[in-house]
Design goal:
This protein has helices at 2-5, 10-18, 111-118, 138-146, 183-190, 221-233, and strands spanning 22-24, 27-28, 41-43, 46-48, 58-63, 92-94, 102-108, 126-133, 149-150, 153-154, 159-166, 169-176, 194-203, 206-207, 216-218. By secondary structure, the chain is of the alpha+beta class. The longest helix has 13 residues, at 221-233.
Length: 235
């Protein structure tokens, strides 16, 4: 509620609530307490305005290569937001795909939903179709599956399946349950593989399907329910 009012970030809001500095109608609040726009909400005794309930939007895009996952870019590079023509509500990306990666990317204006998808404790699975060069050995497959060290910390076990194999090129599916920066590329680099193409094809139960590169659509009610279930049950 506090973050939605624009007073501070969601993380900062959690801190000041934990410190007992926030009250609703004169009563101290706890994390998870709800309020409406008619309630009197104060921080350190000063009233803040709670906005009316937003019209939440949930979108999926097939991000093409060459676009950065930011709202704006100081280097004037193409941004994924440039592809959201006709979306009147202000939305933002859920997580990110680097400039040279492609595939499934979510957008929303629901901060709680976005945080649940991205929070490490949820371990929401993400599957990537990765083309590597020149070949892949059993040793490399085992290392990727069991975890490799990145920035002094080992990655969680992953599912790695070889889908196609031809001379100088192998296509693998990698499913991870964490979201560290450029994780798939760095995992492959750590075992000596060159990534030629990287495409995210699913987030939890949500599949990219046949959505064309550079296009987007709203999530169906069924897809949204399945994602919310995954947020609650995937550990």
């Amino acid at each position: 509620m506090i973050a939605d009012s624009g007073v501070c970030s969601r993380r900062k809001a959690e801190q000041i609530i934990s410190q007992g500095r926030v009250k609703i109608n004169g009563r101290p609040v706890k994390l998870g307490d709800k309020c409406g726009f008619k309630d009197l909400v104060t921080i350190d005794g000063e009233r803040i305005s709670i906005p009316r309930k937003k019209n939440f939007i949930y979108l999926m895009m097939n991000k093409p290569r060459g676009y950065v996952t930011t709202v704006s870019d100081e280097l004037d590079r193409r941004c994924v937001m440039d592809l959201l023509e006709g979306v009147e509500e202000r939305v933002y990306p859920v997580g990110r795909l680097d400039r040279n990666s492609e595939g499934l990317l979510l957008f929303t204006n629901d901060g709680e939903f976005a945080n649940s998808i991205m929070h490490p404790s949820r371990h929401v699975s993400k599957t990537y179709r990765v083309t590597v060069r020149p070949d892949i050995s059993d040793r490399q497959l085992v290392a990727l599956s069991e975890g490799v060290e990145i920035d002094g910390r080992k990655t969680l076990p992953a599912s790695v399946v070889v889908k196609e194999k031809e001379r100088g090129r192998v296509v693998i599916l990698i499913t991870i349950k964490e979201g560290r920066n450029r994780q798939i590329r760095r995992m492959c680099e750590a075992v000596g593989l060159e990534v030629a193409r990287l495409r995210r094809i699913s987030i939890g139960p949500l599949k990219l399907g046949m959505l064309k590169p550079g296009t987007f659509r709203e999530l169906t009610a069924e897809e949204l329910r399945a994602l919310r279930t995954a947020i609650g049950k995937e550990k």
